[in-house]
Structure formats: structure tokens, C-alpha cells
């Protein structure tokens, strides 16, 4: 784990590590998508719209469900700890701001405004995850009255799809076709295209801590 966590048992330590790993995956994919959006906004407004739609799709599919799962499981348990009550209230407020930024990305028509909203979303999400990794998870893992592993059992939204069921079910036949054909011709909001070259990702602009996750996130996009 990137954060030293004193857990009440090995299962809770492993659960905290799995959540942190999924956080890194989410942050990396978001950073990759935002970097591509910024590059497209500078040179190709039409491509920027395609990347924007794919970014919103990622948020609806992964980022917002992750936040909702935290509000159902981790946050209620943490809020029962007196020392974490104000912290969790602040985390819930940040969830509302993250949701508002995603909603802004749905409706914005200007490439400049889209780029600004996307970058704000990335920065806020990374800061939010840092608090979860360094404050919320250690509090839960250290509590002898809370089973972090039990809270997370079967929660693929919090642990990543490799810990739950397959991610591919969400797309059905469309996802299989996209996977086999390498693109959708731009007919959906997945960001794939048979005709338009994707913007290049300059890894030098990505923080080293999430560079690997960002590259793999960009490849999966």
C-alpha cells in the first residue's frame, strides 16, 4: 500500500490495499482521459466532443458508482466513529461537487469550458482519493469493531471489476463487437472511432505515482 495502515487483522489490511489499488486505477484512467481531452480541445473540437462523451461515460460507469458505493458502505461505518464524523461530512460534500462537475461536462458546449471542467474534476478527484487512502481507510482498518473486509465483500465498485464480476457485461453485444473490431465507427459514446486518430498522451505531464495506471487507462479508452 502507498499508505502505512495499521489494520486490526490481515484481511482488513488486504481489503484496504485492494481499495487503494482500485483508487489508483480510477485516478489513472481519469487522468488519461482528461489529458486526451485537453490535447483534442487545442487542435480538434470535433474530436474533443467525442473524447468528452467518452469521459462522461467513464464517470457514469465507474467514477460515480464508486462514490455511491462508498456512501452505502464505507462512509456510514466511518461516520459512527466519533473522530471521523466531520471528515465524512466533508467527503460527502466533495462527492456532491464531483457529481456537479460531471453534470457540467454533460452539457457544456465550449471546448475551453469542457477542458476546464475536466481538469477541475481530475484535481478534485485525486485530492479526494488521497484523503480516503490516508484518513478514511486507516481509521476503518484500525477499528476492532469494524470489519473492513466484511464491508467490502462483493463490492466490485470499490475493489475493481477483477474482484467482482466481469466488466464486459455492461456493454453486452455492443461491447463484444467493439472489443473484436477495435472501434465502433463513432456511432456510440464509447470514444472509439474507425476514422479519427486519437490524441497522443504525453506521459511526461502525468504524475509519476499514477503514470502506469494512466497509460493503461488511456489504452483501455
Automatic annotation (TrEMBL):
Gene3D superfamilies, alphabetically? nmb1532 protein domain like
A Pfam family for this UniProt protein? Answer: Hemerythrin
Region Disordered, residue ranges: 162-182
Q: Where is the composition biased (Basic and acidic residues)?
A: 162-174
Q: Which residues form the Hemerythrin-like domain?
A: 16-140
- Name this protein carries in UniProt: Cation-binding protein
Q: Which species is the source of this protein?
A: Streptomyces sp. SID7958
Upper classification of the source organism reads: Bacteria, Bacillati, Actinomycetota, Actinomycetes, Kitasatosporales
Amino acid at each position: 500500500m502507498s499508505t502505512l495502515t495499521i489494520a486490526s487483522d490481515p484481511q482488513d489490511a488486504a481489503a484496504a490495499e485492494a481499495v487503494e489499488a482500485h483508487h489508483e486505477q480510477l485516478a489513472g484512467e481519469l487522468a488519461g482521459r482528461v489529458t486526451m481531452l485537453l490535447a483534442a480541445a487545442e487542435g480538434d473540437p470535433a474530436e474533443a466532443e467525442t473524447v468528452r462523451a467518452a469521459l462522461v461515460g467513464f464517470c457514469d460507469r465507474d467514477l460515480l458508482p464508486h462514490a455511491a458505493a462508498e456512501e452505502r458502505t464505507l462512509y456510514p461505518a466511518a461516520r459512527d466513529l466519533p473522530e471521523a464524523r466531520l471528515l465524512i461530512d466533508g467527503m460527502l460534500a466533495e462527492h456532491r461537487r464531483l457529481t456537479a462537475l460531471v453534470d457540467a461536462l454533460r452539457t457544456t458546449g465550449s471546448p475551453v469550458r469542457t477542458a476546464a471542467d475536466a481538469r477541475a474534476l481530475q484535481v478534485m478527484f485525486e485530492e479526494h482519493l488521497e484523503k480516503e487512502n490516508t484518513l478514511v481507510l486507516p481509521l476503518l482498518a484500525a477499528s476492532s469493531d469494524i470489519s473492513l473486509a466484511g464491508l467490502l465483500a462483493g463490492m466490485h465498485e470499490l475493489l475493481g471489476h477483477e474482484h467482482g464480476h466481469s466488466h464486459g457485461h455492461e456493454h453486452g453485444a455492443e461491447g463484444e463487437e467493439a472489443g473484436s473490431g477495435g472501434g465502433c465507427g463513432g456511432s456510440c459514446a464509447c470514444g472509439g472511432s474507425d476514422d479519427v486518430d486519437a490524441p497522443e498522451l504525453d506521459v511526461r505531464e502525468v504524475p509519476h505515482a499514477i503514470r502506469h495506471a494512466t497509460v493503461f487507462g488511456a489504452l483501455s479508452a
